[in-house]
# Entry
Amino acid sequence: LWGVLGRFPGGATPPPPRGGGALAVGAPFLPAPKGATTAVVSSPLGRARETAVAAAAALGVPGEVHDGLIETDFGVWEGLTFAEAAQRDPDLHARWIGDPAVAAPDGESFEEVTERVDAARRDLLERYPGANLVVVSHVTPIKTLLRLALDVGPALLYRLHLDLASLSIAEFYPDGGSSVRLVNDTSYL
# Structure
């Protein structure tokens, strides 16, 4: 919900109004065309876990939580609008907008998020080789997974829009290759 309102959506934000129920309706879209879904893996935040439980139940697969999929820690900016953060910390906010190494006060940078999400991705690939997983996470970790699959720079984080409860598909292959097949699909809503 805070993302819809233009607020920094960190760990304190409530579930979106179209969370778990929307994913249960969209569950027929979740299985990958190349095989059945093996598991649903989610961020530890309540709004993602709620959605993951609904998706796992609809798909009849186990679910698990992975701490590496948590949303960016926006520190003292959590809950603020972009304008409020810019007013509070004008110089820092201006640098943060274009530099993924800059973190919000008491938060984490997008570079740190990339390291964390990539470690989670590698862990899941090792534990589920060749499997189809549904990953329920948040805007920045999902953008980061898409960025890793596309092998592009951090500008993608600032230029790609993702809607709440949208579906994206990234494939990571055993040979190290990857591809993106779907981005920001909300047609099932």
